Amino acid sequence: MTANTQLARLWLVLRTLVRDVRDGFVEISRHSLALVGLVVVAVTLTFLARPGLQLTVNEVVLEWLEMRQADSMDPPTNDAAYRSTATSVKGLPKNQLAITYWLSRRYRVSPEPIAALVTEAWEVGERSQIAPTLLLAIMAIESKFNPFTAGTQGAMGLMQIDPEARATELSPFGGRLAVFDPVTNLRVGARHLQDLMLQSETIEEALRQYAVSSGQSEVGPYVDRVLNEQKLLDKML
């Protein structure tokens, strides 16, 4: 038997083997698809015959989806760091970045939460015509940037606002407990300060009234501390 004859027979065997494997795969796929089709038809007929079963399945699926969504929205922990607002320091203007790092070092708070407050103070300050450094100075003196600070007279949060007295302002943000949300506390505190500034002839007088409303016992020193803190921040602008 020549070499060419052996190669021809080997090629014939391989081609026959490939064809058989292909035909077998097609046959198996055909039967599998037919089985899937029968299952779909059976399920459809079952639902048509028993509408209540379809409703039950829908309810179970919806409940499962809601549970999955709720699980995905749950915070990873109850730690305060996860409940506090934070933002990246990247992209901050130079003056805001300098203030962020200075406050972070001075009050031993991570730069990211401070960056969020600095950014918000600039936005709120622009809308309310209040110097953002004044808002940051008040937060520094009132709470040292701890959003869960609670005073002896009932004031709470970053700017030490009274949740009972500011209930109307807190209501759109979720009620009394929203006082512990940093951004909400800042916005409500700024609005309160703005009202006091409109009623006062000087910023010192407005700060005195703010000190009284936040439960400060020594009003005079409080005003001096806030203004001195603002001066330090203004030097970085």
Quick structural gist:
The chain starts with a helix and ends with a helix.
Strand content: under 5%
Look up the CATH topology of the largest domain: Lysozyme
**Mean pLDDT over the residues:** 78
Number of domains: 2
Strand count, sense and barrel status of the largest sheet are: none
Walkthrough of the structure:
With 237 residues, the protein is an all-alpha fold. The chain folds into two domains: 3-73, no CATH class; 81-234, Lysozyme. The protein has ten helices and no strands. Helix 4 crosses helix 5. It is elongated and about 110 Å long. It starts with a helix and ends with a helix. Mean pLDDT is 78; it is low at 31-45 and 57-84.
Topology:
Elements: H1 3-49, H2 51-73, H3 80-83, H4 94-107, H5 111-128, H6 132-143, H7 167-170, H8 182-199, H9 203-213, H10 219-234
Helix pairs in contact: 1-2, 4-5, 5-6, 5-8, 6-10, 8-9, 9-10
